[in-house]
Design goal:
alpha+beta; 10-stranded mixed β-sheet
Length: 219
């Protein structure tokens, strides 16, 4: 799969193990996603790849929820039409180094912003949290399967962390998954994002399926 951002043409490959993949014509950068394994890491390093990130699948059961679930949230999240510019301005402060967007080994900011804009442009409705009228956070949901709703993208303004913005967004996402008949709310997060891991854990998530993201420039 090829995608072009400025002068970067990215090829993303998902596989089960390290190998020498044929580089598609025109590709300048490779992003390879593989099951996490120490031996694989050594094999990829020997091929000139940089380990960019390790991600985990988070899964929250939404079949049954406690009475009053989410009622104690200090902030409130509501569904709104996506304000793409407000989302971009907030997200680019929140996602430094996130390998969904920083697709070059050297974390090129200009390229990352092009990738981020593309992600956000595809969103129509999102959960939004405001604090004293300010855009404090958003969370986008997509259907993963008939039984799972997925957190596609979420970001919060660090200034409002103590206002409970992230908790309001995620508890509302869990509630909506439950009310719409989904058995699980899922998301894939960076293992480096301790704050979000703690939030998922607080909501009873199980963590599984670690994947490593490798990056390489090929021209």
């Amino acid at each position: 799969m090829l995608a072009t951002y400025g002068d970067i043409t990215l090829c993303t490959i998902e596989d089960e193990g390290a190998r020498d993949w044929a580089v598609p014509s025109g590709a300048s950068n490779l992003r390879v996603i593989l099951p996490s394994d120490p031996v694989t890491n050594v094999q990829m390093a020997s091929r000139g790849y940089v380990l960019g990130d390790r991600t985990l699948l988070c899964s929250i059961s939404t079949r049954t929820l406690p009475d009053g679930f989410g009622k104690g949230a200090r902030a409130k999240a509501t569904m709104e039409q996506a304000d793409h510019e407000a989302m971009f301005m907030l997200a680019r402060r929140s996602f430094w180094g996130d390998r969904r967007f920083y697709i070059t080994p050297g974390c090129d900011q200009e390229i990352a912003e092009l990738v981020l804009r593309e992600w956000i442009a595809g969103l129509d409705e999102v959960l939004v949290c405001r604090v004293k009228g300010e855009y404090a956070g958003f969370l986008a949901l997509t259907e993963e399967s008939d039984s799972a709703l997925c957190v596609n993208l979420a970001a919060t303004d660090e200034r409002f962390r103590l206002a409970g913005v992230a908790m309001a967004l995620y508890t509302e996402a869990v509630r909506r998954a439950h009310e719409n008949g989904y058995a699980r709310l899922v998301g894939r997060i960076s293992s480096r994002n301790i704050a979000v891991m703690n939030l998922y854990a607080h909501l009873g998530a199980k963590f599984s399926d670690p994947l490593d993201v490798f990056l390489k420039e090929v021209r």
